[in-house]
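Appendix B. Raw example, untouched.
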Amino acid sequence: MKNKIHTAICTILLFVPWTIFPLRTNRWALESPAAEIIIACYCILMIGCGILTGFLYYKAKAKTNWIRLCLLVNGLYAAAGVVLLGMLFQTQFM
């Protein structure tokens, strides 16, 4: 039962980063202070999703093929989040 809950959580986390696109259709989300805050929050969220999926895979021993796929995708999201967060901080402080 625990593995099914972990699988459901990891599956939901696959689609969370894509919710930025409907959010960015609003005019206020494209203006300067809100845009940086939204992007930074989504980067932190993507990093957290990658860490949580890795934790569920290694520590909770939920090692199904679907969890492996979720680990791969969320790991890529986490890596992209780190890069984007670095780019955001570089443009803000340099």
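End of appendix B.
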